[in-house]
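Intended use. Records like the one below are meant for learning the mapping from a protein sequence to its folded structure. Do not use them to infer anything beyond what is encoded.
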Amino acid sequence: MDTYAKAVSQLKAAVEAAMKKAVAAGTLPEAELPEFIVEVPADTSHGDFATNAAMAGAKAFRMPPFKIAQAITENLDLSGTFFEKCETAGPGFINFFLGGDFYAGTVRDILRDPEGYGSSDFGKGEKVMVEFVSANPTGPMHMGNARGGALGDCLASVLSKAGYQAYREFYVNDAGNQIEKFASSLEARYLQIYKGDEIVFPEDGYQGGDITDLGRRDRISRGRLSGRRHHRPCERIQQRVRRRAAGCQLRRAQKGSRRLCPAQEHQKDAGGHGGLQDHLRQVVL
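Structure written out for the chain above:
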């Protein structure tokens, strides 16, 4: 049992013992002890822990909660616990304040298990998937992707610490209409290098300057894709450009994802492939 759980257990036992003592002394009438909770108050200036035992016992003891709280505190023995004092507040709350032993015990817990400290089984092993970054492959990475990487990775780590089986996913959208438009845009920019305005740019194409830059890069325009041989769009060019376009953007997404969120465990693309590396080998290389 960690120090926090031990403190809660000590407090419940001390309050129950105080109620029994008050009943034995006649301060409280004979009645079945009520169920009550021990919690951390919303305003920690009211104490480190608080209990609603007095209000929970109002019906059983047939007394005002404030008087029940007084009877409990008058018979409360905090010796041997992590608590050094208590006080009543409001309609019948009892607030408790921790002593130095609690903090010393917490430090010992941390030193005993630095990696496991703070973990819980709250999630009961439930599987959860956190998808983050999933950057748009038709454009450059930006600060929003960096923010998503940090937040997503932290959220997955918190879930893992809380007892969930958390999986991290980064999807690369390398299929569908989005990539089709990207390939058509890149094809047009590539052909415009040789044919100028004679090549009409798609009305719904991507207008970013990075598309023009990619069209001029050697990896797109070198080799078999020669402007001297292909002055008109054709299916063969389109297939090659799309293949090269997807490769360029996947490399860019891969480089950015490593920089922004190196702790990712799983990367999948929209085509259902197992990972970015595998897809690059199949499609690009």
